[in-house]
Predict the structure.
Amino acid sequence: MPPAPPATLSDRLWVLVKGPQFVWWLGHVTMLVCAALYFLYWITFNYGAGAHWFSRAFLGAIVSYGVVIYKSFPNIQFTPEFFRKILADENVQYFLMAIFWWRSTAMLAPLLPFTVFAFFNSLNYTRTNILPTFFPPPPAGTTDETYNDVSLISRKLHVWTESNHAAAMTFVAYVEVIGVMGSLIIGAITFQSSILSPIVYGNFLRYRYFFSAETRTAFALIRSSLDNFFLPPSGNPSIPPVVVRGYTMARDAVIRFGQAPVHQAAAAPRPESEERSRSHVRG
């Protein structure tokens, strides 16, 4: 029986676009493009005029995380155990936060973590799916210089994403803990954003503390730095004792708040994206 003729470009494109993963990629690309356009407004201090790009960026994130959730939980069950399981999934948490940011005041900090995830995920999908669609392997026994060049680029992209993955996740953790929460607290104090925003985001962060080693490291470094500033023997001696006591009480309250969901979610299965964290970024 003669071998099947090679698939045409239109056939390969149809295979590429008909699956939900292509929609997932489009969501990430939408996030990247809209975030870049919002950044152009942000650097010119024209925040209000670029707010619609902020909202559209998170619409892209909602689409991408919605696809992941659809694939991860195909069989919905109306049971308490199922809802506890789905709420403990980190992709669900980012999906809910994307909805929250979509309807929130435009700020740069919340865009950064989603943009990093979108960049790595879209780059990996481009390398593993889009490039092979346009540049398939040549027939056996033949050579194709274009295919060889594209394969070399693909391997370099793979090496780059692998070598920079850990640094990117560390950057995201510090932005989430310091940048985003700091922006929300300042916004609430100055009445530029809802006073409920730090509370909502704080609940998200305590789940991140459980799932992400990078987030735990960021919290530990912040606590160490603040302890060294406020508390003896290395603390600033000019700080009034009442301020030191206030810091200690606030720190302990945050610790208790952060530890609560760890015990509640301890029985939940490990998120799939954490299990393959070296080759896949959440979302």
In short: The chain has one domain: 9-138+151-275. Residues 145-189 form the longest helix (45 residues). Confidence is low (pLDDT under 50) at residues 262-280.
